[in-house]
Write a structure and sequence with these properties.
With 250 residues, the protein is mainly alpha-helical. The chain has one domain (2-245). The chain is 77% helix and 0% strand. It is built from 12 helices and no strands. The protein has helices at residues 2-6, 9-20, 29-48, 55-62, 71-86, 88-118, 129-145, 148-157, 162-175, 183-196, 198-212, 217-247. It starts with a helix and ends with a helix.
Length: 250
């Protein structure tokens, strides 16, 4: 199923752009763009299976623990930004690593979410809390099984493409004004970028696809089995907890 996913440029393009969002040189816009692109990727995966995710389900499937702009987080980002400008080369190296990490996580999540839909382990339209169980199980499988083979392949696929990723990030920042960082604005900018940067994106997704072909089947089978086991256990625990709540008097 991974090989089918990576041959679909419409799905691999958001994975690339999620990585590029790490290089957006505007405080907070990088996280806003990443959050939008993750929702876009999950929505596309569902559409490929003839399903539709509500906006609420998209949010629950992609939200991260502690996400949002708490006071300390916002102040920290604002304070570190001037140093990032001064130490541009140092931070660029660190953000390239973050770029690889973000694309790796996005690809792993996309693979496991497609597995979820294909094997009918979850369907949209039920209680939105069930989407939390899927998200948490995906995160748990990535943590327990590890995503190093995917990370290695993506790092190789991104070799020589640092400038291209940085260009994508800069263009996104240039086209999204500080006055309008809404999902609607980012959506229209991403659509336009996909049209304008078609050849560059094709080259990068092709390189990434070729590199990901080397990920071993035994690893993917173990990764899938670990996730399915964790998801089924989590769903059973959630169902038992719901039954217990309903049985309580009052």
């Amino acid at each position: 199923m991974l090989y089918e996913l990576i041959k679909d440029s419409s799905l691999l393009t958001p994975v690339v752009l999620i990585g590029a969002s790490a290089l957006v040189p505007v405080p907070f816009l990088d996280d806003i763009a990443k959050a939008y692109l993750e929702k876009r990727l999950f929505r596309l995966l569902a559409e490929k299976e003839g399903l539709e995710l509500s906006k609420e389900e998209q949010s629950h499937l992609t939200q991260h623990p502690g996400s949002g702009c708490c006071l300390v987080g916002c102040l920290g980002s604002a304070l570190i930004y001037p140093f990032k400008k001064v130490l541009r080369k140092v931070f660029f190296f660190l953000e390239i690593k973050r770029s690889v990490d973000q694309s790796t996580t996005a690809l792993a999540q996309a693979y496991l979410f497609r597995l979820t839909l294909r094997n009918d382990l979850w369907r949209p339209g039920g209680p939105v809390e069930s989407a939390d169980v899927v998200r948490e199980s995906i995160q748990a499988a990535c943590h327990s099984q590890g995503v190093k083979p995917l990370e290695t392949a993506i790092r190789h696929g991104f070799e020589g493409a640092k400038g291209t990723l940085s260009d994508f990030a800069s263009k996104l920042a240039d086209k999204v004004s500080g006055a309008d960082e809404s999902e609607e604005k980012i959506s229209s900018v991403v659509d336009r970028m996909e049209e304008e940067e078609t050849e560059e994106l094709k080259g990068l997704t092709r390189s990434l696809s070729d590199s990901l072909n080397d990920v071993s089947q035994p690893y993917l089978e173990k990764f899938s089995a670990t996730f399915e086991k964790q998801l089924q256990a989590a769903q059973m625990a959630a169902a038992a907890a719901a039954t217990e709540r309903e049985s309580r008097p009052g």
